[in-house]
Design goal:
about 350 residues, alpha/beta, Rossmann fold, 11 helices, disordered N terminus, binds nicotinamide-adenine-dinucleotide
């Protein structure tokens, strides 16, 4: 079988090249399928193990298949004829999920392992892996004022148990498939992506969606209180979905980023308490706060150092948190109204 050599990089993707996106029934994969469709690509295959009616987005003109790509045969079928493969599939969720279900998170290793091998065997030109800031050394994130994480901070390795280690070893697969086998791979470490068309209830949702939902429910029920996980002093940065998909597109098509993990996140740091205040302002309510110190809360502080992405791409995520949260809040408000009206809403 013929494979692409390292000298063949710089390939210009054609509008009718086969693009394959896994995890496309989920938040980021679904938005990525829409992004490529809107850019004019005509052959997009979207895959997810969820049944089709449960996908957040099904874009017209995109081939949508329900299959579990952690199975080798399915992974082979998934990438047939693929020029570019984007692996956004993982068994994951917010802290409430990844702290409780480490085995499930680790088992996502099967997805990337089968998919990258199938992509290489199929002669795909490029392969994208969605890694995470959870791959970073947790010792560097013990203070809410911890310095922002730069790419070299993943080693010496002390990743988030379960989920973070799966990401780190899958990154290494990507690096070695390039080094040994010449498959062009690209790796982004996402920092808390948020926005419409993602999980907002059910246990897998992340802080921005959870806070919006809690504030909306408090307002709707008249019980003007909110429970915050931990002491609310933990800090994070949150990256809006439009910046994320645009970043994936740029990272995948930059030769300087072959087999080189890069942060894809905002550097606008905020404490969870202040995020709650922001959503209260958007909603026009003020809630009584209670704190659950025993709830999953993750590391004390985490921010994205964007020096590298700025240098290589001359770009970084730019949507202000307030703008992105207003859009997210409006979408979740509509979802809550639909749920109340007995309409079907999808959760994970
Ligand atoms: P998501 O849960 O909304 O989407 C993931 C999708 O993968 C789900 O729809 C799920 O059904 C699907 N999936 C899981 N196992 C599968 C399998 N075996 N075969 C086929 N499909 C399968 O999550 P998301 O937020 O869209 O995340 C996408 C990727 O980005 C994941 O790899 C995730 O780890 C990574 N990531 C996300 C964030 C974030 O803040 N959302 C942060 C860091 C990394």
């Amino acid at each position: 079988m013929e494979h692409i050599s390292k000298q063949d990089t710089g390939y210009q993707t054609r509008w009718d090249d086969q693009i394959v996106i896994t995890g496309a029934g989920g938040f980021i994969g679904g938005s990525l399928a829409r992004h490529f469709h809107d850019r004019g690509f005509t052959r997009i295959r979207a895959l997810d193990r969820k049944p089709l009616p449960e996908w957040y987005q099904r874009v017209e003109g995109v081939e949508c298949l329900s299959m579990d790509v952690s199975e080798k045969e399915n992974a082979i079928r998934a990438v047939e004829g693929a020029v570019e493969v984007y692996n956004l599939a993982a068994d994951m969720g917010g802290m409430g999920f990844i702290e409780r279900f480490r085995v499930e998170c680790l088992r996502s290793i099967l997805i990337n392992t089968h998919l990258i091998d199938a992509a290489w065997r199929a002669g795909a030109r490029r392969y994208f892996f969605s890694s995470s800031a959870c791959a970073y050394n947790t010792d560097l994130q013990k203070d809410p004022r911890s310095r922002a994480l730069k790419e070299s901070d993943a080693y010496p390795a002390m990743a988030e148990r379960g989920y973070g280690w799966e990401k780190l070893i899958s990154e290494m697969f990507c690096q070695e498939y390039w080094a040994e086998r010449g498959l062009e791979t690209h790796i982004a470490r996402f920092h808390n992506i948020y926005g419409p068309n993602g999980t907002w209830f059910g246990g897998r949702e992340k802080a921005p969606a959870a806070v919006c939902r809690k504030v909306i429910e408090a307002r709707d029920t008249g019980d003007l209180s909110i429970e915050i996980w931990g002491d609310g002093a933990q800090t994070r940065s949150f990256c809006y979905i439009d910046d994320c998909v645009s970043g994936i597109d740029r990272i995948m098509h930059t030769d300087a980023l072959i087999a080189t993990p890069v942060n894809l996140g905002s550097c606008e740091l905020i404490a969870i308490n202040d995020l709650v205040t922001m959503v209260e302002e958007i909603a026009g309510v003020k809630l009584k706060r209670t704190y659950d110190p025993g709830a999953p809360k993750g590391v004390a502080g985490r921010n994205s150092d964007n020096t590298f992405i700025r240098k290589v791409l001359g770009w970084e995520p730019q949507t202000p948190l307030r703008t992105g949260m207003e859009r997210t809040y409006a979408w979740i408000e509509r979802q809550c109204a639909d749920r109340k009206a007995g309409k079907r809403v999808v959760q994970d």
